[in-house]
Description:
Layout: E1 9-13, H1 18-29, E2 33-37, H2 41-53, H3 63-74, H4 92-97
Parallel strand pairs: 1-2
This protein binds nicotinamide-adenine-dinucleotide.
Amino acid sequence: MTDRLKGRTNAITGAAQGIGRAIAEACAREGAALYLLDLDGAGVTQTATDLTAAHPDGRFASPEEIANAAVFMVSDECPFMTATCLTIDGGLSVRQHG
Ligand SMILES: NC(=O)c1ccc[n+]([C@@H]2O[C@H](COP(=O)([O-])OP(=O)(O)OC[C@H]3O[C@@H](n4cnc5c(N)ncnc54)[C@H](O)[C@@H]3O)[C@@H](O)[C@H]2O)c1
């Protein structure tokens, strides 16, 4: 794994199988966030499930898990936290660099 595509979001059509799935796997290894599309709903769900299983937490974050951290960062709860990057990735970057 590398982070060459970290911070990027890729939309991949035909991700249920073949070339599209291979591209999805490659982009995931490079750290991209993915939108997976296919006419084959079950197949593309399987691709997403397989890629998610490779994540340390075995799941995607919920929108609330990301939003709660963003709300905290802009709140007055920790005014000394400044010029800081907060990584909310369920441990993925630790696995990549550890
Ligand atoms: N496999 C090769 O060696 C090769 C070589 C040159 C070109 N191509 C072309 O590349 C493309 C992909 O090849 P492949 O071997 O991965 O094919 P594939 O049939 O294994 O997979 C194509 C996937 O695209 C999905 N799909 C089809 N139409 C779609 C649409 N309108 N929107 C979303 N998803 C859609 C299908 O459901 C399928 O999951 C094809 O157009 C193929 O002709 C393939």
